[in-house]
Design a protein that fits this description.
Elements (H helix, E strand, L loop, with lengths): L6 H11 L16 H19 L3 H6 L3 E2 L4 E2 L2 H12 L18 H14 L1 H20 L2 H12 L3 E6 L15 E4 L5 E11 L8 E10 L9 E7 L1 E3 L5 E4 L2 E6 L10 E6 L6 E5 L5 H37 L21 H33 L3 H37 L10 H8 L9 H12 L2 H21 L6 H24 L3 H5 L2 H29 L5 H18 L3 H10 L3 H4 L6
Parallel strand pairs: 3-6, 4-6
Antiparallel strand pairs: 1-2, 4-5, 5-11, 5-12, 6-7, 7-12, 8-9, 10-11
Helix pairs in contact: 2-4, 2-5, 5-6, 5-8, 5-9, 6-7, 6-8, 8-9, 8-10, 8-11, 9-10, 9-16, 9-17, 10-11, 10-12, 10-13, 10-16, 12-16, 13-14, 13-16, 14-16, 14-18, 16-17, 16-18
Length: 595
């Protein structure tokens, strides 16, 4: 039994629910079919098991070190990444013209999910590289794409995202890194960046840093921020790697999880010789970087989902093979039963299944929206798909980060005392996943983004579209006897969100008061979205069962997880809705001295 992600579940999500094979009818993916998709996923699963999962524990125990001159990682990391690059996985979703395989983004995300489940530390390097390459594809010049993007897709160069600074953290409007214009059109970059994953290593010929900085004379705040490409080593016109740029590793950060992804403090321009090149327009750096950040946010959500998922499968495997205790009413002389026979263990396993399979499905749904945008010829349709993706992004980042972690906690609980030992991997999954509520904008920042920007933009168009889309699912489910109760419950939840949103818009006078309960709003809407995703899966399972499909145990498991979520999780939105609608003010009114 593979313990990364259940392949039967991937097949269900991709082909029975999202109908990814239908993308092959579009010119962009006409050279592919399900056979090629399956072959790529099969190869990824094998490589993830054999080369990534095989060294995950060793990498966790032997995190990167810096000797003052270079960063050292265990050899298995480069071996695995070389095999990953050789397999073409880094370029899976990129255009053939740029050296990629031109697979649907949904298939590419499925591949990434397998590697993240196997070893999130090693998978972090190509994850960041792909996001940086995508950024250059959208806002970089043709020359920058040729010089930096295509070598990243080929795996010659790796990439990073350099936003935070020691004094600013997530407050990007306060960054101090300078960009000083030069006569030749380049810039001299001067400043320092903190928490830079993949910032220094010997895994590739070069590292391409995507750096936010403020051009001298630019206004304060986010409007004065520009985006620059800053290579660790200069790149010649012929693509050759030359002398080192003025980028220095100051030191490493040591985290409780993600230990295999080297995390750095970098200094730019100590010798006033750090060369950077403007990407896009001056003053539009944050907008450009958001192309990378939004992809990274959904990627973080996916990583959180699959860390929870692999923890669930490990806990399930343990529960089936661990005899302990007897069922209620048994005689003392009866043999012990596997702990999966105990109801509370089944409760914990079912909760994990509901969280992780729901979160994975949400992330793949978001990826399918990207593919729908890429294949739509209708500008209005693309706009609507973009709106839906916009409002789902903070949820797709934050909800899996919160509940994937909760699943990991429950996995440890299933294993009991063994769960806390390094002899079993579930404690490592928990430590790795604990970063994700912080990664790429904390969950609190996602909540503020959701309520403060996404819900209000274009007079609430994105929220209206989301609730209408969820309502269409509820309407379809209302015609199926087994799902009518869930359809009614989801329709009521939609109205709860709508009425709560109206109340908070009408009642709140100041931005601080408006955002004081943003996290509760995210909890509320996040649970409604996952309930919708579960009803979508239940519909697909119901249709498959009605058609006589023989895989009844699998579909019964889907329906039972949906039942769990609707019975035990969705009712919680009532409390969150009250907090938001009433403007519960305990945190807002709390004063520093009272702590």
């Amino acid at each position: 039994m593979h313990l990364l992600i259940r392949r039967r579940d991937l097949d269900f999500l991709l082909y029975e629910w999202l109908d990814v094979a239908a993308l092959c009818h579009h010119a962009r993916f006409a050279q592919h079919d399900r056979t090629t998709f399956d072959a790529v996923i099969d190869a990824a699963e094998t490589l993830a098991e054999e080369e990534f999962a095989s060294h995950a524990a060793e990498l966790d125990a032997n995190e990167p070190t810096f000797d003052g001159e270079r960063v050292h990682l265990i050899p298995a990391v480069k071996k695995a990444l070389d095999a990953y690059i050789e397999g073409g996985f880094l370029g899976a979703a990129f255009d053939e013209a740029d050296g990629g395989l031109q697979l649907p983004y949904t298939v590419g995300q499925t591949v990434n999910a397998l590697f993240s489940a196997a070893n999130i530390g090693t998978a972090g390097y190509p994850f960041l590289t792909g996001a940086a390459a995508n950024l250059l594809k959208v806002v970089g010049s043709e020359a920058q794409q040729a010089r930096y993007m295509r070598p990243m897709i080929a795996g010659r160069f790796f990439g990073t995202m350099c936003l935070s600074e020691p004094q600013a953290g997530s407050s990007l409007g306060d960054i101090r890194t300078r960009a000083i214009p030069q006569d030749d059109g380049s810039y001299r970059i001067k400043g320092s960046k903190m928490w830079i994953s993949g910032g220094e290593h010997e895994l590739a010929e070069n590292i391409v840093h995507m750096v936010l900085a403020r051009i001298d004379g630019a206004p304060a705040g986010t409007k004065g921020i520009s985006l620059f490409v800053v290579p660790r080593s200069h790149v010649g016109d012929d693509g050759s790697v030359g002398a080192r740029n003025d980028v220095r590793l100051v030191g490493l950060n040591h985290k409780m999880g993600y230990r295999g992804t080297v995390n750095t403090v970098l200094s730019f321009g100590d010798n006033d010789a750090c060369v950077g090149h403007l990407v896009g327009e001056a003053g539009q750096g944050l907008a450009g970087m958001f192309h990378m950040m939004n992809e990274a946010r959904i990627g973080v959500g996916m990583g959180a989902a699959v860390l929870g998922y692999t923890g669930y499968l490990h806990a399930l495997d343990y529960a089936r093979g661990r005899p302990q205790g007897r069922k209620a009413g048994s005689a003392p002389s009866d043999p012990p039963v596997p702990i999966i026979e105990h109801t509370d263990v089944r409760r914990m396993l079912l909760a994990q299944k509901a969280y992780c399979e729901g979160a994975l499905a949400l992330c793949l749904y978001c990826a399918r929206l990207v593919d729908r945008q890429a294949t739509s010829d209708d500008a209005e349709d693309r706009d609507q798909l973009g709106l839906l993706l916009d409002i789902l992004t903070p949820i797709a980042k934050a909800w899996p980060s919160e509940y994937g972690l909760e699943a990991n906690k429950l996995a440890i609980q299933v294993l009991g005392g063994y769960g806390y030992t390094r002899e079993y991997p579930v404690e490592r999954f928990y430590r790795d996943n604990r970063l994700n509520p912080i990664h790429e904008g904390t969950n609190g920042i996602q909540a503020i983004d959701l309520l403060g920007r996404k819900v209000t933009m274009r007079q609430g168009a994105a929220l209206k579209l989301l609730l209408r889309t969820i309502g269409e699912t509820a309407e379809r489910a209302s015609t199926r006897p087994a799902l009518q109760a869930y359809a009614k419950q989801l329709a009521e939840a939609i109205e709860t969100v709508a009425s709560t949103t109206r109340r908070v818009m009408e009642r709140v006078a100041t931005p601080e008061a408006y955002l004081a309960n943003a996290s509760a709003y995210l909890d509320m809407l996040g649970h409604v979205v996952i309930a919708w995703i579960w009803l979508e899966q239940a519909l697909a399972a119901d249709e498959a069962t009605a058609s006589g499909d023989r895989d009844r145990a699998f579909y019964a498991g889907k329906r039972q997880a949906a039942q769990y979520f609707f019975h035990r999780e969705l009712p919680q939105i009532a409390q969150w809705a009250r907090i938001v609608a009433d403007g519960e003010a305990s945190a807002l009114e709390m004063q520093d001295a009272w702590f």
